[in-house]
Each structure stands twice: as structure tokens, then as C-alpha cells.
């Protein structure tokens, strides 16, 4: 379940309270008159089943509470309550599969920012992937794949396309369009340094039996990217975000960007081109699959809402 806290003007408190009392998936409803200071107003709290949360948020925003008050959601790890168990039973659907659209937008928006930490993580991941490729170490390459933060911007682009949110598409595109070239430029500089120190030469790249998947583009490159994008969006939009780590390990984005830089420095233009193609295939596949998953979830939701209205009428 999720804990909901609403700050609202006193004139809307009754409407918010009644809304929560009429929602079978909400329980533990509490009204605290006049306790909010900034913004001023009353506080209404409740515990809401995840599968009912999207309806509750839509109704609250329709009341305008998000403009002259505030709405806060936080996860509840443990609830010992017969009332909470009953609310989860009465709420339609399964909590693990429920999509809270406002939560998805908030998470993707926050994780797609072109921040200093994002750029540092992406650059370090590319450097690790380059070292893993040079040393033919798949373990190091996998570590770089886990470290890479690129799924946030990719998810933001997919969410923006489905919800027609141009701000999310621009933000995610900016993080990818600036982040990857900057990280690749630093990686190329590191490759030049390794070359000058005698740690890297073109012959080093002749036998990369363990990491040749980085630049080996084929049908499975797109298939893996599509599966990873679908799994990643399912994990991001449901209550199973721990599965995202598996998605990071599946996709060859950071390693491809890193190897393209190294191969270009060493004059191996074929491998550099294939690595760049691998990067583009993975980026496109992830966005396409993630967008399709969101569209299917949205269509399923609309179909369920239509059926509920027909049965109610």
C-alpha cells in the first residue's frame, strides 16, 4: 500500500475526505484541521491500495488540490491492519501490476536530468567498459553496464512519446545527446593516454573473444534491446523496480559507446562503426519497446474504465 498525504484549503477538505471514504481501496482516513502551515490548510491522510492510487490521484487533481495545496505519496513497507487487508481485497486489479502514471512521470522526469552526477556516472561507466574491452574482461564490462544511468533518459523519452509530453522527450533526448558524446570524448582521451603509456595498441584489439558482443551487431541485438526495454518499463511502472538491474546488464549501450571511442582512436574504423550501430540499435529498441508497453498499459486501463462505467450505468 501507499501512504497518501493531502494538504488542501478548508473549503475542499470535505470533498477530499468524502472522495477517500467513497474509495474502497482507501483506508485509515485521517483529517487534521488547520495543521498545515505552508501552504496553509488542512491535512487529510489515508493509506491507499496501489491499484486504486491512480484513480485517487486523478480525482484529487480534478479538485485542484495539487495547485493550491499538495499531494504526497510514499511507500509503506509493512501494514498490520484488517482494514488495510480489506481495502487491498476490494480494490480492483493487482497492486504489483498497477501503473501510477503520476509516479511514472515523476520518476522518469527526475532520472532523466542532465546533471553532474548523471554525466559522471555515465563517463565512469564508459571508462570501465573501455578498460573491460581492452583487457577482454566481460566482468568489467558487465560492471560498467550496471553502473550506466542511461535507462532513465530512455524511459523519459518513451513516456514523453506516449503521454505527448514534449518536456520529457526533450529532457531525455538532451541527456542522451549530450551525455553520450561527452562520455565518449573523455573515453577517447583516456584511450590516447593508454596508447601513449604503452597500455593499448591496435594489436590489443585483435583478439577479444570474450567481449566481441559489444560490436557484433545482428538480429539478436535488436531482440535483446526490445526485451530489455519492455522489461525495464514494466519494472519502472510497477512495484518491481529491483528488476531494473537485470535490464542494465542486458543492454549493450555503454560498452558500445566506449568501444567505439577506443576503436576510433586506434584507427579501427569498421569496429568503431559497428559499435556505434550497436549503440543506436540498442537505444532505439529500448525506447520502442518501452513505449509499446506503456501504450498497452494505457489501452488496458481505458478499456477497464469503459467497462466499469458501463456496468455502473
TrEMBL record:
Top-level division of the source organism's lineage: Bacteria
Keyword Transmembrane helix set for record: yes
Pfam family name, one: DUF389
Keywords: Membrane, Transmembrane, Transmembrane helix
Residue ranges crossing the lipid bilayer per the database entry: 116-135, 141-162, 174-194, 214-236, 243-264, 276-297
Alphabetized PANTHER family for the sequence: AT15442P-RELATED (PTHR20992)
Name of this chain's protein: DUF389 domain-containing protein
Amino acid at each position: 500500500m501507499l501512504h497518501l498525504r493531502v494538504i488542501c484549503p478548508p473549503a475542499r477538505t470535505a470533498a477530499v475526505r468524502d472522495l477517500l471514504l467513497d474509495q474502497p481501496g482507501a483506508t485509515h482516513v485521517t483529517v487534521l484541521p488547520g495543521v498545515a502551515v505552508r501552504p496553509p490548510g488542512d491535512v487529510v491522510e489515508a493509506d491507499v491500495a496501489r491499484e486504486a492510487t491512480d484513480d485517487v490521484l486523478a480525482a484529487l487533481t480534478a479538485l485542484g488540490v495539487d495547485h493550491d495545496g499538495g499531494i504526497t505519496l510514499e511507500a509503506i513497507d509493512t501494514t498490520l491492519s484488517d482494514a488495510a487487508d480489506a481495502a487491498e481485497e476490494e480494490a480492483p486489479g493487482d497492486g504489483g501490476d498497477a501503473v501510477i502514471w503520476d509516479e511514472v512521470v515523476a520518476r522518469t522526469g527526475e532520472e532523466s536530468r542532465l546533471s553532474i552526477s548523471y554525466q559522471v556516472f555515465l563517463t565512469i561507466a564508459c571508462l570501465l567498459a573501455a578498460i573491460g574491452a581492452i583487457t577482454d574482461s566481460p566482468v568489467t564490462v558487465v560492471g560498467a553496464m550496471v553502473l550506466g544511468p542511461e535507462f532513465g533518459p530512455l524511459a523519459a523519452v518513451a513516456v514523453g512519446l506516449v503521454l505527448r509530453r514534449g518536456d520529457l522527450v526533450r529532457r531525455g533526448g538532451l541527456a542522451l545527446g549530450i551525455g553520450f558524446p561527452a562520455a565518449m570524448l573523455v573515453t577517447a582521451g583516456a584511450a590516447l593516454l593508454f596508447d601513449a603509456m604503452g597500455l593499448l595498441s591496435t594489436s590489443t584489439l585483435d583478439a577479444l573473444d570474450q567481449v566481441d558482443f559489444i560490436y557484433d551487431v545482428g538480429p539478436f541485438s535488436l531482440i535483446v534491446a526490445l526485451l530489455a526495454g519492455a522489461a525495464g518499463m514494466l519494472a519502472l511502472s510497477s512495484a518491481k523496480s529491483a528488476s531494473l538491474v537485470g535490464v542494465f546488464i542486458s543492454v549493450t549501450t555503454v560498452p558500445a559507446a566506449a568501444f567505439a571511442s577506443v576503436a576510433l582512436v586506434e584507427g579501427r574504423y569498421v569496429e568503431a562503426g559497428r559499435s556505434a550501430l550497436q549503440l543506436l540499435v540498442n537505444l532505439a529498441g529500448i525506447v520502442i519497446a518501452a513505449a509499446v508497453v506503456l501504450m498497452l498499459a494505457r489501452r488496458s486501463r481505458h478499456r477497464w474504465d469503459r467497462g466499469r462505467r458501463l456496468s455502473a450505468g
